[in-house]
Amino acid sequence: MTNAALTGRPARLWVRKNLFRTPLDAVLTVVFGSLSLYVLARLALFVFVNARWEIIERNLKLLLVGRWPADQLDVLVTSVVVLSLWGGVIAGIVAGRQIRKGTSVIAGMTPTQRLSDLGRRFGLVLGTSLLLLLLTNSSGPWLMAGLMLVGGVAGTWSGRRIGVRFLSPIVARAGILIMAAVPIATYAYMVSAVPLAQWEGFIFNLSAAAAGIILSFPLGVVLALGRRSKLKLLKMVSVVYIEFVRGSPLYVLLLLANVSLEFFVPASIAPSKVIRAMVTFTIFTAAYLAEIVRGGLQSVPRGQEEAAKALGLTPAKQMRLIVLPQALRNVIPAQIGQFISLFKDTTLAGLALGIFDLLAGAGVITQQDDFRGQGLIIEALVFVGFLFWVGSFTMSRESQRLERRLGVGTR
Amino acid sequence: MTPPIPKSRTPFYRNVRFISWSFQLVVFAVVAAFVYWLFGNYQRNTASSGIPTNFTFLGSPASFDIPGADFEPTESVRNAYVIGVLNTLRVSIVGIILATILGILIGIGRLSKNWLVRKLSTIYVEVLRNLPLLVIITFTFLGVVLQVLPRIEDSWTPLGIMVVSNRGIGVPWYSGTSGLSLIVVFFVGVIGWWLLARWRHLVADRTGQPARAFWFGGVFFLAALVVGWIVLGGRIILPMVDGKRIAGGIRVDPSYFAVLIALVIYTASHIAEIVRGSIQAVPVGQGEAASALALSGFQRMWNVVLPQAMRIAIPPLGNQYLNLIKNSSLGAGFAYFELTQVTQVTVGNGSPAVPAFTLALTFYVVLSLITSAFVNVANRRFKLVER
C-alpha cells in the first residue's frame, strides 16, 4: 500500500503539500506563479536595465538635504554624528539593563547569532545607506557614515557600562537631564546655522516627524487624562478637541494652516511654512496619541490605582508614579505605529504648503532641463517610495518585536 | 471615654469640590481666552482687509469648470460644493466597497495553505502598508494613468465595448430610461433575492436539501435586471472615440480612476491585516468543527469562520473606512474635484478662505461622526451576546 504523497522525496512532498494540495490550489499556484514571475521579470528589467538612475544620482543631495547651504554641511554632519552617539548610548543603557535583569535576548547568543540578528533587524537600513553612499561620488558622505558608525558603536559600548557606575540618584538624574538636553541642543545648533524655513528634502520629512511626535506627546497625555477625568468641563474640552481633529483630514488642516493662519495670529508672529507644518502635525498627532494613551490607561488594572491610594499617595502621584508609567509602557508599540504614520504623512506638507520635501523633490527633478518630458517620474517615485518604505518597514518590524517582548495582549 | 472630636470645618481651599471646580474653571478660562484671542484677531484682520466672514460667497458664480461634471462656470459656488461633496462620496463609497473585498481576499490569502498565495499576500501587505499614500497616488496618476495608458488617438478598445485612454476610460452605460426607474428595478431585484434566500433557507431547514440560496437569489436578481431593462425599453450605449474625447457611455475621469485605485490598494493592505488578525482570533475549534461536519473549504470560511471574524473586525474596519474618507481629500492634489479641491479652487478664485474651509471641515467631521455612529450600531448589533 504505497501512497503517492508518501513515497516522494521531501522536496516533492513539500511542493505537493504547499502548492498542489487541491485542484483549486494547483490553479492558483499556476496563475499566481506565472503572474509573479512576469512581474518579477519586468521589475528586474526595469531596475537593472531600463531605468535611468542617473536622475537620482545627479540629484541625490538635492533629494536628501534640499538646498542646505554647502558651507553649513559640517553642521549637519556634526549633528548627525552626535545624535547617533546619543542613540547608541540609549540603546546601550537599555541593553545593559536587560542583561542585568536577565531579560536580554541577545545575551545568550553567540557572536555569529548576534550578528545575524542585527542583520535581520537593521540589514535593510544599513544596505540602503550603503546604496546611497555608492550613489554619491564624493568622500564627505563616506566620512559621515564612518563617524556615525563609530559614534553609534562607542555610544552603545559606554551605555552598557552606565548604570553600574551611576550609583547616587543625583548623578542619575543629572544624567537623564543631560540625555534629554542633547537632542534639544543639537536642534538649536542646527537651527542657528540654517533657519528652519530652509530645511528641505528628506531632512524635512525626518525632522518634521520627530518634532511632531515629541511635541505632541505631552499634549496627548494631557488630553487623554482630561478625557478620562471626572471633571466635566475638562472632559468636554478634551472630547471636543479629540473628536474634531480626528474627524478632519490632515491635508485640509495643512491647507488651512497655509492660507488662513494669517487671520488668526498677528502678522508679526506668523511663522514660516516649515513651522506651520510641524505645528499642524503636532496638533493632529496629539489627538491620536490621546486615544492611544487612553487605551493604555484603561489597560492598567484598577487594583494598581487602589493600592497607590491605600499607600496614601496624592491623586497626582498615583497617576505619575503608578498608573501612567504602566499605561505608557503598554502602548509603546501603538505609539511607534503612530510615529510611522506621521512619518509617511509628512509628505502631505509638500503638496499642501509647497514645502520642498522628498516627494515634492521627486516631482521637481523630473522638470529639470536634462530630464524633462522623458517619463522619469517612475524612477523618482520608486526611489522616494523605497526610502519611506525602508524606514516604515524597519520601524514596524521593531515595534512588532517590542510588542512580543512586552507581551502586550498576551496576558 | 474617647476624647470628643474637635468640631472643625474644612477650610474652603482644602475642599475637594472647590479645588476641582476652580481648577476646571481656570483651565476652561485659559482655553476660552485663547479661542477668544484667535477669534478677535480674525475679526480685526478680516475687517481691516475687507474680507467677508459670512457665507454669502456661496451664492456668487463659481467661475471655474469641473471636468467630468455637468457644471457651468456661471453656476453658484454652492452648486460646486454639492458636486464636490457628491464626488467625495462617490470615491469613498466605491473605494470602501472595493477595498473591503480586496482586503478580505488578501487577508484570507495570508492564512492560505498554499505557500505561494501566502507569500504573495504578505508581500502585498508589507509593501503597500509601509508606503506613503501620497506616493501611491502620485504613482497611479503620473506614473500609470498619464504614462502607461495610451493617448486618445490610439486608445485601447478591449472587446469593442470599452475605451481606455489617458483622457478617461469609457464604460458602457444605460440610456433611454430614467435613472429612477432603474433604481426601482434594482431594488426589486435585491428584495426578491432576499425573499428567495429566506424561502430557500426555510425549505432547507424543513427538508434537509441544500439551500443554494446564493444561486437562486442571484439568478433572480440578474433575471429581474434583464427583464426590467427590456420592459422599460432601455438601450446600452457603447463608448467610442469622437475626435479628442470619448462620447457615449459613461466616462471615468482619469484622476478619479487614479485616486480610486490608490485608495483601494492602500486601504486594502490595512484591511487585510485586520481580517487576518480577526480570523486568527476565531477559536481553531470552530474551523475544525466545520470540517468535521464535512463542510467544504469555502463553506467553512464563508459560513463559519468569516461571520465570527467580521464581528471582531467591525471596530477597526470602521476606522479604516473613516481613514479612506479623509484620505480622499488627497484627490485635491490630482485634479479630482472632490470637496477639498472645490474648496481650494474657490478660495483661489477669491472666496474667503476661513468660511470656505470651515464648511469643508464641518462636512468631514459630520461625515466622520455619522460613519462612526453607523459602526457603533453595527458593532452593538453583531456583538457576541455573552451568556
What does this structure look like?
The complex is a heterodimer of chains A (about 400) and B (about 375). With about 400 residues, chain A is mainly α. Helix content of chain A is about 80%, strand content about 0%. Chain A has helices at about 5, 10-20, 25-50, 55-65, 75-100, 110-135, 140-160, 170-195, 200-230, 230-245, 250-265, 275-300, 300-310, 315-330, 330-345, 345-355, 360-365, 375-405. The longest helix of chain A is centred in the C-terminal third of the chain and has 30 residues, at about 375-405. Chain A starts with a helix and ends in a 5-residue tail after the last helix. The model of chain A is unreliable at about 1-5 (pLDDT under 50). By secondary structure, chain B is mostly helical. Helix content of chain B is about 65%, strand content about 5%. In chain B, helix 4 crosses helix 7. The longest helix of chain B has about 35 residues, at about 15-50. Chain B is globular. At the A-B interface, helix 3, helix 10, helix 11, helix 15 and helix 16 of A face helix 1, helix 3, helix 4, helix 9 and helix 10 of B.
SSE map:
The complex is a heterodimer of chains A (411) and B (387).
Chain A: H1 4-7, H2 10-19, H3 23-50, H4 54-65, H5 73-101, H6 111-135, H7 140-161, H8 169-193, H9 201-228, H10 232-247, H11 250-264, H12 273-299, H13 302-310, H14 315-330, H15 332-345, H16 347-353, H17 358-365, H18 377-406
Chain B: H1 16-49, H2 77-109, H3 115-129, H4 133-145, E1 163-165, E2 168-171, E3 173-175, H5 179-207, H6 213-231, E4 235-237, E5 240-242, E6 245-247, E7 250-252, H7 254-281, H8 284-292, H9 297-327, H10 339-348, H11 353-382
Antiparallel strand pairs in B: 1-2, 2-7, 3-4, 5-6
Helix pairs in contact in B: 2-7, 2-10, 3-7, 4-7, 5-6, 7-9, 8-9, 9-11, 10-11
